[in-house]
Each structure stands twice: as C-alpha cells, then as structure tokens.
Design brief:
The protein is elongated. The longest helix is centred in the middle third of the chain and has 19 residues. About 40% of the residues are buried. It has two domains: about 110 residues, Helix-hairpin-Helix base-excision DNA repair enzymes (C-terminal) (Endonuclease Iii, domain 2, Orthogonal Bundle), CATH 1.10.1670.10; about 100 residues, Hypothetical protein, domain 2 (Endonuclease III, domain 1). With about 250 residues, it is mostly helical. The chain starts with 19 loop residues before the first helix and ends in a 9-residue tail after the last helix. It is built from twelve helices and no strands. Bound molecules: iron/sulfur cluster. Iron/sulfur cluster binds next to helix 9.
Length: about 250
C-alpha cells in the first residue's frame, strides 16, 4: 500500500493515480489560482476571544445571522468579564431573539467557555489546538478558525466548503471525515499558504463550486480538477460532504 512516509495518509484512497509529488504540484497551482481569484488584503478577522465566540455562534447558522447576533452580543457585553458574569439564560435569550439556532446550547457554551478562560487562562485564549479543543463548544474546525483568523497562524479550518471542494479537486480522498481532509491538505499544501485555503474555498464554494450543480464550465480550476475530469463523482463524496462539524 502506497503510504506517505511521514504519516498514515494513503495514496490508494484517492480515486485516481498520481504520485505525492504530482499531487503537491497540483495543490500548489490550485491554491495559487484560488488566491488570485479571491484576493484578500486582510486575513485576520479579529481578536482571538471575539473570533472564538463568533465561531460558537456560527455553527449551523447563516453568516448574516452570525454577524448580526455577534454584533448585538458584544455591544451589550463588550468584555469577557461581562459575558462571564452574565446569567446563561440572558445570553440564551439574546441569541434566540436574534435568530440563532441551538441558542440554548450555544448560550451555555459561550458563558462556560468565557468563565474557563478567565479562571484557567487569565482571560486569554490559548493559542494551541489541544487546549482550544478542551473548551465547551470548540471542535477542531473552530479551534483552527481561532488559530487562523484570531491569531494569524498557519492553520486550515475544514468546514463544509473545504471538505467538499478538496474532495472534488482530488486533494483528499472522497470518503473520509473532515478531520482527515485537514491532514491531507496539510501534507499537500506548503505551510505558508495554509491560512488562505479556508477563505478562498469558502468564497469559491459560494460562487462557483456550489454544493449542487457546480459551475465547472466557468471554473478556472477545471483543468486541475478531478471532478471536472470525471475522476471523482458526487456519489463518491456523498455522506461526508454534509456532515457539519464545529
Ligand atoms: S471544476 Fe467544478 S468541481 Fe472542480 S473546483 Fe471547479 S466548480 Fe468545483
């Protein structure tokens, strides 16, 4: 079985033949092209604590609702001390009133996480994935979002867009969990480009490589894409694409 020497990643789980070097070369071209297509002057979205709380709110929630609810929350409770000393029910009510789903769970996570940060980390957000993932409501995707967009570190958050597009492009085997997709991307993409992957694939997923009926004909990546070349099919990806993780 062809395995990468540095990990348990396997070439044979892909749907077509290509060496690791071939995949790395193609991954580099894809990310460069995505960066040209979706340029961003600013990668950092905010301060780590705000990024973390926003990520809890954003789970299974539309961007507009998340933006609005986060704004209202931080206007009313501007600091970590304010949120920590709030009653959980107050935060839950605020989320509910502003259209956030799973408001009960998220309200509890927001307050509990803030209290832990104050008690255990002197009010600072830890800057490593292991500690971040111990916080209530913070899974691997959110932890990576905090590292990338809160701290500006090289990290690859794998959300539903990154999961789907990576598999269509053939940068990850089709039938694997999002956590594993991250491992393949980290292996194939140079580390200094990791921070661009999430935002560029999210933009691409909303505009061109949409969940249903991707617009391959107009896609500048079609020459580099397994799906466009018929090497990977939607049914190969199904089952892992819609799995939402935080
Ligand atoms: S060619 Fe099609 S499947 Fe491939 S990235 Fe572009 S839109 Fe997505």
């Amino acid at each position: 079985m062809a395995k990468n020497s540095r990990s348990s990643l396997s070439l044979e789980r892909f749907t077509f033949n290509e060496s690791w070097d071939g995949k790395r070369d193609r991954a580099f071209k894809i990310v460069k092209k995505l960066m040209e297509m979706y340029p961003r002057r600013k990668i950092l979205q905010g301060e780590p604590y705000f990024t973390l709380i926003r990520c809890i709110i954003s789970q299974r929630t539309k961007d507009e609702t998340t933006d609005h609810a986060s704004k209202v929350l931080f206007e009313r409770y501007p600091t970590i001390e304010d949120i920590s000393s709030a009653k959980i029910e107050e935060i839950q009510r605020l989320l509910k009133e502003n259209g956030v789903g799973l408001w009960k769970t998220k309200g509890r996570w927001i307050v509990e996480t803030s209290r832990i940060l104050l008690k255990k980390y002197e009010g600072r957000v830890p800057d490593n994935i292991e500690e971040l993932m111990k916080l209530p409501g913070i899974g691997r995707k959110c932890a990576n979002i905090v590292l990338a967009y809160g701290f500006g570190y090289q990290a690859i958050p794998v959300d539903t867009h990154v999961n789907r597009i990576s598999k269509r492009l053939g940068l990850a085997p089709p039938r694997i969990a999002p956590e594993k997709v991250e491992e393949y991307l980290r292996e194939l993409i140079p580390k200094n480009l990791w921070i661009y992957v999430n935002h560029a694939m999210v933009d691409h997923g909303k505009r061109i490589c949409r969940p249903i009926n991707p617009r391959c004909e107009e896609c500048p990546l079609k020459e580099l894409c397994s799906y466009a070349r018929g090497l990977v099919k939607e049914e190969d990806i199904k089952g892992s694409t819609n799995r939402r993780r935080h």
